[in-house]
Design brief:
Elements (H helix, E strand, L loop, with lengths): L12 H13 L2 H18 L5 E5 L7 H6 L3 E6 L2 H13 L5 E4 L5 H5 L4 E7 L8 H11 E12 L1 H10 L3 H9 L6 E2 L11 E2 L1 H9 L4 E8 L15 H14 L3 H4 L4 E7 L1
Parallel strand pairs: 1-2, 1-4, 2-3, 4-5
Antiparallel strand pairs: 5-9, 6-7, 8-9
Helix pairs in contact: 7-8
Bound molecules: S-adenosylmethionine.
S-adenosylmethionine (SAM) binds next to loops.
Length: 267
């Protein structure tokens, strides 16, 4: 099927929501960046269908739209429930998806070395046992010239959000919990509290297996500070907020405090 890419460029809102899911709809800057990455790789390789691996791809919010564009997409995730949901989402829009159960740190053993043109690692480094081991496995899966797209929670934003909510002691503890490497560790493995990263920390992590970092964007600079659904009821306000977010995503001082950080790594 033909898919709108990225979301927000037309088509029925309901259809987009079904294809992209809530998270996909909330990350238009990420889709804009990925559209350029894919176009560049298609031009570089001369192949229209790329091999894309979604490490910790969950329910397929990113994987399914790529599959709908005709790419060969493999979702790797330890959760059988998430993989089943991703397959259901793919079936709903009549696209094929390969689902493999496993952890990001074993990615090369699951999909093969030098097997991917693009690896997505979105909202996963927060939860893995050892982010450096996962990033090393991702690097081994990338082909020369291929790209990893990393999206992760920003440790600085968490401090800001707590402070703006009047939770000053928590904010200070979060701030002091950011280690010298720019990583705020999970409070207790196995809980829902995620690990968080500064931009410097995420950059160092991506570079640790020898990848070269590329563009970095701040995702949800203002939206993360507004009450949930603040601009949802007013279409004009939602459009204005999206335009503001687009501009802020690349403005260093604002990018660095965004709720989430999106960084590309190239092999
Ligand atoms: C917040 S969800 C993100 C899902 C998807 N990447 C997205 O952006 O919508 C986190 C996902 O990471 C997966 N996960 C947890 N530990 C993992 C690990 N060690 N390796 C790979 N994925 C893992 C979870 O099962 C879950 O699907």
């Amino acid at each position: 099927m033909a898919a709108e890419f990225p979301p927000g460029t037309g088509g029925a809102a309901l259809g987009e929501r079904r294809l992209y899911g809530r998270d996909g709809m909330r990350s238009p800057v990420v889709w804009d960046v990925l559209r350029e990455v894919v176009a560049a790789r298609v031009a570089q390789t001369g192949r229209e269908a790329l091999d894309i691996v979604d490490a910790g791809g969950g329910t397929g919010g990113f994987a399914v739209p790529f599959a709908a564009l005709g790419h060969r997409v493999t979702v790797v995730d330890p959760s059988p429930d998430a993989l089943a949901a991703a397959q259901r989402r793919a079936a709903e829009v009549h696209v094929r998806l390969t689902a493999v159960q496993g952890d990001a740190d074993g990615l090369d053993g699951l999909v093969g070395e030098s097997a991917a043109d693009l690896v997505l690692c979105h909202s996963v480094l927060e939860y893995v046992d050892a982010p450096a081991a996962s990033m090393a496995a991702i690097a081994r899966v990338l082909r020369p010239g291929a790209t990893v797209s990393v999206l992760a929670a920003n440790a600085v934003a968490a401090v800001l959000h707590r402070a703006l909510a009047g939770r000053y002691t928590e904010a200070r503890e979060l701030l002091l919990g950011i280690g010298p490497g720019g990583v705020a560790q999970r409070e207790a493995p196995g809980t829902d509290v995620p690990r968080r990263f500064t931009l410097a920390g995420l950059t160092a992590l991506i570079e640790s297996p020898g990848l070269r970092t590329g563009d970095a964007h701040g995702i949800r600079v203002f939206a993360g500070l507004l009450p949930a659904g603040a601009a949802d009821a007013d279409a004009a306000a939602a459009d204005a907020l999206r335009a503001l977010e687009d501009a802020a995503a690349v403005y260093p001082a604002l990018r660095d405090i965004a709720a989430r950080l999106h960084v590309l790594g190239h092999r």
